Amino acid sequence: MLISTSKGLRTLVDRTVLCLTISLAFSCCAHARLPMISAGASHVCAVTWDGAAKCWGDNLSGKLGVGGSIGNPRSFSTPQQVVGLSSNVAQVSSAKDYSCALTLSGAVSCWGYFADANGTFTYHPTPVASLSLTSSVLSVASGDVHSCALLLDGTVKCWGRNTFGQLGDNTQTDRPSPTTVAGLSGVTAIFAGGDGTCALVTGGAVKCWGVYPGDGTNADYKLVPVAVVGLNSGVSTVAMRSTRRCAIASGGELKCWGHCPDGNFAIYCVPPPNSPLSVAGLASGVVAVSLGDNFMCASFVTQGPVCTGGNSLGQLGDGTYVNRSMLVAVQQLPPTTVALTSGQYFTCAVTAAVAIRCWGYNANGQLGDGTSVASRPTASQYVLDGTLGRPLAVTNGAQITAARDGLILARYLLGMRSLELIRDIEMGDAQRIDAGQIAGYLAAIVPLLDVDGDSNISASTDGALLMRYLLGQRNQALVTALVGGGATRPSSSAIEAYLAMLLP
């Protein structure tokens, strides 16, 4: 995370910069970034640009971390400050009855029911710091009643309930304190959901343990990590819900496994449950995916979210309450979505302008829009602490210039790193001046740099378009000899509109 209080794409860069800050020897940064927002069953937590953790929705069990007596007030329809976490937060992870946060120093704190990682299963209305996870944690993931932490050395420690082996220690013994996952190393990202856990290892292979491990056997659960069939490389992320798992494989192809939710409305829910299968209509270009109890949403590089499944509470966001067996577009969302997170019957999206927009069930205020409407079948808008600002302000100076920001962008797309990025560049009023800091920032906003929308980010096209735009070129002069047949933004007007969104 950028060690700065200035506004910008702060929480999109958390994983990369945290990794770079702690160690360049571990390759986690290349695979995934920490989420800026995370939904439990009926609540949501997010990290603001200044590193504060805020939560909203259902407060039963104290999972919003606002203090007071457990579950009183019962809910909040707008974001609330988590006690003691007003700065230096790198990541949040929400689960059914609790939430956890990771700080810039690599320490873990949790609140709500059960998961204090200190040897107790109890209620905590405010964050309690883990006594053993005080540093060197790169990310944290939360299932229904267990949590896991990815450590600097590429190993994983888990704690909580272990009825189905979700802690991965080859036992079914509950562990109120962190225990090392057996036989697991080289981990680059971790995910948890329901009573299961998955990890990405070096090269993008997936290993899972607990329920529905995806290893091709008929076993309902595994006590140690096993390889997921067909996902041995190139996976970028995994989404998990109580009975379903989905992974974004090479080329943006979505593959899912596990048991179907009640109703079996959705195209992603097809047998067999024990190994991944491709999802119709989502064979390429998927960049984000989330799972609710009986529905799924996905997003593409140049297209807003689409959803399928149960819709009795408006959780598909298509303006209706009609269940859908095919993909439908979420209404009232811009085309670019950088993150998705789903609760039991609702979803929140983070757009390229870092507007948080939510839809679906809202009985506990989980949409965060300040209303008491029971459900919303289209995307509402809630902007957490304002808009993104200027993502192309690489150095976060007062002015975005071709000679500074544009040149650094071009160098990054050419593969330059470390001091090569900033050598001989006049930084002037720049606030982001450290080369590692800048590299981390750019690594996180890479999806936004696909200027022509062809799903291929390159210096010769996207970098040149960015530089031309910053030099003031418009109309045909902007796109001549740069935009190819595969572009989804083939015209100067489309590209200008896209870049204007990134330079409000």
CATH homologous superfamily name of the domain at 31-135? Regulator of chromosome condensation 1/beta-lactamase-inhibitor protein II
Structural class call reads mainly beta
Output the CATH topology of the domain at 31-135: Methylamine Dehydrogenase, Chain H
- Provide the low-confidence segments as ranges: 1-35, 385-389
Largest sheet: 4 strands, antiparallel
Q: What is the C-alpha radius of gyration, as a whole number of Å?
A: 22 Å
Distance between the termini: 23 Å
The amount of helix comes to 10-25%
What does this 3D model show about the protein?
This protein has 504 residues and is mainly beta. It has a domain at 31-135: 7 Propeller (Methylamine Dehydrogenase, Chain H), CATH 2.130.10. Helices cover 12% and strands 31% of the residues. It has six helices and 28 strands. It has helices at residues 14-22, 402-413, 435-445, 459-470, 476-479, 492-502; strands spanning 37-39, 43-47, 53-58, 75-81, 89-94, 98-103, 108-113, 123-129, 137-142, 146-151, 156-160, 175-180, 187-193, 196-201, 205-211, 221-227, 237-240, 244-248, 254-258, 277-278, 286-291, 295-300, 306-309, 324-329, 337-342, 346-351, 356-361, 375-376. Strand 5 (89-94) and strand 6 (98-103) form a beta hairpin. Helix 1 (14-22) runs antiparallel to helix 3 and helix 2 runs antiparallel to helix 4. The longest helix is centred in the C-terminal third of the chain and has 12 residues, at 402-413. The chain is globular and about 65 Å long. The two termini are 23 Å apart.
